[in-house]
C-alpha cells in the first residue's frame, strides 16, 4: 500500500536500477528481480511507458544516468527497460519466460507471487531443469507415433550439479 503513494520518477528510477542489476546477478535471482519489477509496474501504471517505449540500441544511447544519486534527476522515466528486453533472449528458459511476461504486460494484469522465488538456488534450478527435459521427452513420445532417438550430449546422465 505504501508503494502506491511514491512519485513515478522515484519508482521508475528504482525499477531501472533493478533492471540493470538483473543483467549482472546470478540466473536463479533474475526471475525474482524481474517479477519484482513486474509488480512495481502493476502497482504504478504510469511507469508502464518504460516498457512501451522503443528500446535503445546501446547503453550509450540510453538517457538514464546510473551515476546520478538523486532519483529524480536520473531520467529513468524517459528511458526504456532494454535490460529486460535483452533478458528475453536468455539461455535459461525460466528467465526468458519471466522477461517475456514483463514485456507483454497488459493493463489488467495482477501482481505475481514472489514467495516461491525467494528460496530457489542453483541445486533446485538444476533439478528442475533435469525434470523438465524428462517431461518434454515424455510429451514428445506421447504425441508422436514413431519412436524418437535422442542425440546423446553426455555419456553419463547428470544426477546432481557437482558430481
From TrEMBL:
Q: Where is the composition biased (Basic residues)?
A: 134-143
Q: Where is this region: Disordered?
A: 131-150
The record, for PANTHER family, names: NUCLEOLAR COMPLEX PROTEIN 4, NUCLEOLAR COMPLEX PROTEIN 4 HOMOLOG
What family is this?
Belongs to the CBF/MAK21 family.
Q: Which InterPro entries match?
A: CCAAT-binding_factor, Noc4
Q: Which GO terms describe its cellular component?
A: Noc4p-Nop14p complex; small-subunit processome
Q: Highest taxon of the source? A: Eukaryota
Protein name per its UniProtKB record:
CCAAT-binding factor domain-containing protein
Domain CCAAT-binding factor residues, every copy: 2-99
Q: Which Pfam families match?
A: CBF
Residue spans crossing the bilayer: none
Name its GO BP terms in alphabetical order.
ribosome biogenesis
